[in-house]
Amino acid sequence: MGNKYFELDYKGPWQGVDVSMPENMIGQSATPFATNWIPRGGELRTRPRKGQFLPPLPDRSYITGHCAFADSNNIVHTVVTSSTGLWQLNGNWRANLSLAWNKVGFYPGASQGANSTPVQFQVFVNKIFYVNGSSNLWTWDGITPNSLSSNKALQNIAIVDQANILSAGAYFIGELSAYVILLNTVEQVQPVAGPTKPKFDTNFNQRIRWSANGLPNVWDPTVNTGAGFTDELDVPDTINGFMTIGRTGFVFRVNGITEMTSISSGVLPFDFNHLWASDRGIGNVYPWSICNYGPIGVFVATDDIYELSLGGFQKIGGKSRNAIFTDIGNAVASPIASIFPAYSASYPYLTYMLSIPLANNTSKIWCYFVEDNCWFPWTTKNGFQSGRARMVPTL
Amino acid sequence: MSVPYSQDGGPGGGGYGGGGKPPGGGSKSKGTVGSQPSLITSTGGLYGYNNALLIPYQDANGRTYLVIYDPANYNTEEDCVYEFKLEDISPGRAIDIHQVYFQYRDLGLVNFTVTVRGTLYDRATKKETLVSKTVIVKWGTTNADRKIHSYYVDLKTVCERPQLRVVRKADQGPLAIIRAMMFGNSDEDADL
After folding, report:
1. Do B42 and A71 touch (CB under 8 A)?
2. CB–CB contact A338 B79 (8 Å)
3. What is the pLDDT of residues B25-58, one digit of tens each?
4. B71 contacts A346 by C-beta, under 8 angstroms
């Protein structure tokens, strides 16, 4: 029929999903629709297979996060938090999967597991600190429980009022200039003061609290003036994330970002500076979309997905942005993001992964492959991510 | 190279963490600091090797556990769909597609489908009909030689705005496409 010969050639580097133009006007290496692919060395491969790696916890409690740290003996611990407590991976789990997990400690109160809140971790002075949206700051040093302590109950270490024994926790945690920092805090308050009077948890969603310098167990400013707090009352919204790059902390809100700079080790250790002069500006929309790796941080704002680095802010949603935000618009719960340098020791590939839970126990996971500067979506049909992806030792 | 913590529970082990035994399930076994017995010992622990990307995951039954994306296995457990650019070689005209060519890396046996789809427009009735032609493809070897190979798909169709589409159903093998080409002829005159 036709008489004019043609060849249409498709090859790498693959550009990922492009919905910025009609599908007949996109680049030759872009796709208007794809699911479950990964670019690998200029090739287009079906994505790595997802599989169960470790068994559920013995009590089948809900896993809310995991992390690893080296204790003061230089022993590494891979730990998991759940709705019932803190667990660690058994060193010889490969020999007996049913004994993979050891319980480190349990929450003393039934409501302290905060079932669906992804846990935020901070490693500091050979200990792990974490918060889960309750009025507690939990910690473990990798040492106890041992022969010196048989009590397996986890203990809250953030007592912000020693006289009345009032504790504090938070939704977010970080560390800056040797201060442990709690953000969007949950604190015990009392209608009538007194150590034996009733206490109630109250969420201070504009509050930033810090420990005494280098003393993560000291939180009461009357005990050590280095500890303290500030309320961001001059902004129209609440704190929903935190990251540090270099010596600067970034406190995120829906409509803005506040820079937190260490200025002294005295009574006022930090200077807070709202980045935008306007009432509304680039901020973080989803609490768990923030994550950072080395000098790169990523978060989801209202208008795009941003990469924050030493060079400033950069939009990375690119030509996939509209497709990503369509899925975000269909989310049935808050998306959870992770950024990780590798899939295994032999497979380095810096990836930002935004997992969006959808209806019917499915999810869409948008992967931004930093090296190739492109987005590909992955799918899951029988469940969804319940915490952040993180590289941890397993041996 | 010495390791900081012995896995086998035997005596000694060298280094600053020699000796000791990782915790048994539910037990209170302790690590020891072999050469410094007066120090407080650790509870359990790992060497700190074999980093894996672990992801908390909740399945449809509400169970949570840790999963991985195994980078040594590309046999995805979900359907994989890739649509190439929709081509507009001669706008408003139907074209001939003769063949589709693939360069691939053999990662193992894989079954999938290659489809070219487009539309045909009838000027008399001013109606558009969808055209779709699919071929089942199987390539690769059980040994997965990991070399580059060629594969031709004989797929003839006539349509406007053709689009190449690859669908690999769940668990049907690992697929690695290096290059795809679509060959054909277009007419310089208005058709249909």
Report:
1. yes
2. no
3. 333 444 444 444 446 788 889 998 888 999 999 9
4. yes
- C-alpha to C-alpha distance for A152 and A103, rounded to whole angstroms: 8
Q: How close does chain B come to A386, measured CA to CA in Å? A: 5
Give the CA angle between residues A116, A358, B175 to the nearest 5°.
115
With a cut of 90, say whether residue A127 has pLDDT above it. yes
Res B43: pLDDT: 87
Closest alpha carbon to A127 in A64, A72, A182: A72
Is B79 within 8 Å of chain A by CB? yes
Residue A278 confidence (pLDDT): 62
Q: Token digits for A224?
A: 């050590």
User: Which token pair is A155?
Assistant: 């203990």
* Confidence (pLDDT) at A172: 95
CB of B43 closer than 8 Å to CB of B57: no
pTM for the model: 0.88
Answer whether residue A154 shows pLDDT above 60. yes
The residue among A385 and A108 whose pLDDT is bigger is A385
ipTM: 0.91
Computed from CA positions of residues A272, A273, A275, A277, in that sequence, does the dihedral angle turn out positive or negative?
A: positive
**CA dihedral of A106, A110, A113, A117, whole degrees rounded to 10:** 180
φ and ψ at residue A189, rounded to 5 degrees? -130, 160
Q: Is B175 in the A-facing interface, judged by CB distances under 8 Å? A: yes
Contact B82, A34 (CB under 8 A): yes
Mutate to test the interface with A, among B80, B83, B116, B165 (most CBs of A within 10 A): B80
Q: Would you tell me which residues 375-394 of chain A have a C-beta closer than 8 angstroms to some C-beta of chain B?
A: 378-394
Name the nearest CA neighbour of A299 among A348, A252, A230.
Answer: A252
Residues in B closer than 8 angstroms to A36, CB to CB, are: 76, 78-81
Q: Is A65 an interface residue toward B (CB < 8 Å)?
A: yes
Q: Who's near B135: CB < 8 A, 6+ residues apart?
A: B113, B114, B115, B153, B154, B155
pLDDT along chain B (192 residues), means of 10: 29 28 40 50 88 92 93 96 94 91 98 96 92 97 95 95 97 98 80 49
Q: What does the mean pLDDT of chain A come to?
A: 90
C-beta separation of A165 from A223 below 8 A = no
**The predicted structure's pLDDT at residue A348:** 93
> Minimal Cα–Cα distance from B1 to chain A, Å?
15
Count the Cβ atoms, other than its own, within 10 Å of residue A282. Answer: 19
Task: Report residue A113: phi and psi, to 5°.
Answer: -75, -25
∠ CA A184-A296-A345, nearest 5°, is 110
Task: Please name the helix (run of DSSP H) or strand (run of DSSP E) that holds residue A324, with its range, or none.
Answer: helix A321-329
- Token pair belonging to B69: 């994306």
Best probe of the B interface among A75, A90, A365, by most B CBs < 10 A, is A75
CA dihedral B185, B190, B191, B192 (to 10 degrees): 150
Contacts of B161 (CB under 8 A, 6+ apart): A24, B86, B87, B88, B118, B119
- Interface check A147 vs B, CB under 8 A: yes
